[in-house]
Amino acid sequence: MTIKPGQLVIARHPDRPDMLLVKRVAWRESAGWWLTSDNPGAGGVDSFRIGAIPPHLIGGRVLLRYWPPARSTVITKSRSSARNHHPS
């Protein structure tokens, strides 16, 4: 599976393997992938709280949104906003 910045992925929480996270990929670090929340104001868990996510905890990419029905979409391109947060 190829992962690129801007894509949505499903990952397991490093400290709670039973918890699945749906997050946007921001960048790659030596420790793993930096994942961000699309709605940080909601208090979600992302790499700003738990650090980089090791590659083996990334389960797959999100390809389709099916709920709510009025907003169902096929994910065809990545948002570039996640890349703007990389601490260069």
Description:
- With 88 residues, this protein is mainly beta.
- It has one domain (8-77).
- It has 1 helix and 6 strands, in the order E-E-E-H-E-E-E.
- It has one helix at 47-50; strands at 8-12, 20-29, 32-36, 58-61, 64-65, 73-74.
- The chain has a 4-stranded antiparallel beta sheet, with no helix packed on it.
- The longest helix is centred in the middle third of the chain and has 4 residues, at 47-50.
- It is globular and about 40 Å long.
- The model is unreliable at 79-84 (pLDDT under 50).
Structural class: mainly beta
Count of structural domains: 1
Task: Provide the β-strand percentage band.
Answer: 25-35%
How far is the N terminus from the C terminus?
A: 26 Å
Give the integer mean of the pLDDT values. Answer: 84
Major sheet, described briefly? 4 strands, antiparallel
Radius of gyration: 13 Å
Enumerate how many helices there are, as a single number.
1
Could you say which overall geometry the principal axes of the C-alpha atoms support? globular
Order of helices and strands: EEEHEEE
For the largest sheet, list the strands in their spatial order. 3-2-1-4
How many beta-strand runs? 6
Roughly how much helix do the residues carry, as a percent range?
Answer: under 10%
Low-confidence regions: 79-84
